[in-house]
Amino acid sequence: MSKTIAAVATGPAAGPIGIIRVSGPQTLAIVDTIFTPQGGGALSERPNRLLTYGALHSRDGKVIDHCLCCVMHAPNSYTGEDMAEIQCHGSPAVLSETLSALFAKGAVQAEPGEFTRRAFLAGKMDLSGAEAVHDLVTAVTTQAAENAAAQLDGVVGTHIFEIRQQLVDLVAEFLAVVDYPDEEIDSHLFDSACEILHRATSELYDMAETYERGRILREGIPCAILGRPNAGKSSLLNALAGVDRAIVTNIPGTTRDVIEETIRIGAVVLRLYDTAGLRDTQDPVEKMGIDRAMKQAQASSLILAVFDSSDHISDDDLMVIARTHGKRTIAVLNKSDLPSELDVQNIQRHFDYVVSVSAKTGEGLQELYDLIPKVVGMDGMSFDGSTITNARQAAALVRAAERCEEAFVAAQLGMTPDAIVMDAEGAIAALGEITGQTVRDDIVSTIFSKFCVGK
Ligand SMILES: Nc1nc2c(c(=O)[nH]1)N(C=O)[C@@H](CNc1ccc(C(=O)N[C@@H](CCC(=O)O)C(=O)O)cc1)CN2
Ligand SMILES: Nc1nc2c(ncn2[C@@H]2O[C@H](COP(=O)(O)OP(=O)(O)OP(=O)(O)O)[C@@H](O)[C@H]2O)c(=O)[nH]1
Ligand SMILES: [Mg+2]
């Protein structure tokens, strides 16, 4: 018999209300011993999912809260097991007293993701759906939440199930003819196999490709602000973030450490890094800052190269241009409120994207906001669940696509059915890793161990 688990489902900070979840065969018996409904009777006899007011008792029987509880009877619960929720006051004291009362009555602490793991094992959701739960809990943007909600609802799982089923049927047909090696194989079989495999291959590659954007949707994009001293990097960081985060002075070499600030532009989470101005210097501290700036630029997926448009291009600017080589970069011509001295055409020769802004007046910032999602390929995308946000799923999709492609080539060449069957089975296994139909236990464990406790 599986254990009955309990955990706090609300955040670690003290809040007005805290929720404790309980799941497993002993749930009703355990919760009945620590909660007494106001109107008498037992919580387990109250209607399913109806919140009931009553007294909550600690392990030594003292009343520690007056709160709301409900039960959710198996199999119609999140985990498919008997479950209960205790919605009490959210202080760490009440929550830990309640947990310890539950443990004293036989419940055990739930491991990270264990409720969702049980839901997956009970067939309440496929593995891609369970992974979407995690995305939904950690979503930063509305768009990321929207995409994850659709995946929780089975958008990815259903599509993969369909493709997988077609391959399973195809394998079955070929296996049937493998048993009769002397008979001529109906050419229709090869034709329809080619068609199915070709379509599956392109659909799977298409899905895998969405991961490039999906990763940005989930993790955001690291973006270094690079430029010579006094170009206005720190001013730009402050203007973009809308807070007075970094120190700004007219003394060149003000910023030394890398200063991080996260902003949201539509679906894009931009992790901005303000850095020390690049120049030739003897100052050992400034040198270390410049070293960090260059490392940060290297580690970033997008660079904002800031130039002072009220001045001519200097050797330091050339150093900045050299550092952006091969990197996705937007040239930001700052100080547009001042008369221009900059050779703009020269800058345009080096960069695909150039915008004029004034960090001081805010002029041009909107154009920069509009440009960034376009440059990272996130404008006009839909968040209907079709975007893969998960490296594991993307890798399995590529493997499945490759095996389908190999099976397609084998079918086209009219090779022996065994070859087609072997590759198609490889694809079926890879797809099963996404839905969870054919996934190793240790992989399942790793996936759920990344969840929070109580989810
Ligand atoms: N208080 C509370 N809020 C919550 C959750 C929770 O567990 N408790 N959730 C937890 O993640 C999410 C909601 N997800 C849920 C998903 C399924 C079921 C559930 O009871 N499913 C049953 C019955 C479905 C039905 O009524 O048709 C089932 O699948 O059989 C409950 C919550 C978000 N909000
Ligand atoms: N007129 C005008 N001045 C600006 C603008 N942006 C920044 N400045 C001024 O330029 C000077 C340098 O600004 P910072 O933001 O500190 O420049 P930085 O690139 O971070 O400089 P370091 O940290 O030294 O590398 C300050 O005096 C700012 O007030 C702008 O858009 N217009
Ligand atoms: Mg600075």
Per-chain topology:
Layout (H helix, E strand, L loop, with lengths): L4 E4 L6 E9 L3 H8 E3 L14 E6 L5 E10 L10 E8 L1 H13 L3 E2 L4 H8 L5 H12 L3 H11 L2 H24 L8 H23 L1 H9 L1 E7 L5 H9 L17 E7 L2 E7 L9 H16 L2 E7 L6 H9 L5 E6 L9 H7 L2 E4 L8 H11 L15 H22 L4 H19 L5 H9 L6
Parallel strand pairs: 1-7, 8-10, 8-11, 11-12, 12-13
Antiparallel strand pairs: 1-2, 2-6, 3-4, 4-5, 5-6, 9-10
Helix pairs in contact: 4-5, 6-7, 6-15, 7-14, 14-15
Magnesium ion binds next to helix 9.
Global morphology: flat
H/E series, N to C?
Answer: EEHEEEEHEHHHHHHEHEEHEHEHEHHHH
Number of extended strands:
13
CATH level 3 topology of the largest domain: Rossmann fold
| Order of strands in the sheet with most strands | 3-4-5-6-2-1-7
Tell me the strand percentage band. Answer: 15-25%
Bound molecules: the ligand Nc1nc2c(c(=O)[nH]1)N(C=O)[C@@H](CNc1ccc(C(=O)N[C@@H](CCC(=O)O)C(=O)O)cc1)CN2, guanosine-5'-triphosphate, magnesium ion
Determine the structural class based on helices, strands and strand pairing: alpha/beta
- What percentage of residues falls in helices of 4 or more residues? 40-55%
**pLDDT < 50 stretches:** none
Radius of gyration, Cα only, in angstroms? 29 Å
How many H/I helices?
16
Name of the level-1 CATH class of the largest domain: Alpha Beta
Question: Can you describe what's shown?
Answer:
This protein has 455 residues and is an alpha/beta fold. It has 3 domains: 5-110, Probable tRNA modification gtpase trme, domain 1 (Gyrase A, domain 2, 2-Layer Sandwich); 128-210 and 388-449, Four Helix Bundle (Hemerythrin (Met), subunit A) (Up-down Bundle), CATH 1.20.120; 217-375, Rossmann fold (3-Layer(aba) Sandwich), CATH 3.40.50. It is built from 16 helices and 13 strands. A 7-stranded mixed beta sheet has the order 3-4-5-6-2-1-7. Helix 11 (315-323) links the parallel strand 11 (302-308) and strand 12 (329-334). Helix 7 runs antiparallel to helix 14 (391-412). The longest helix has 24 residues, at 155-178. The chain starts with a strand and ends in a 6-residue tail after the last helix.
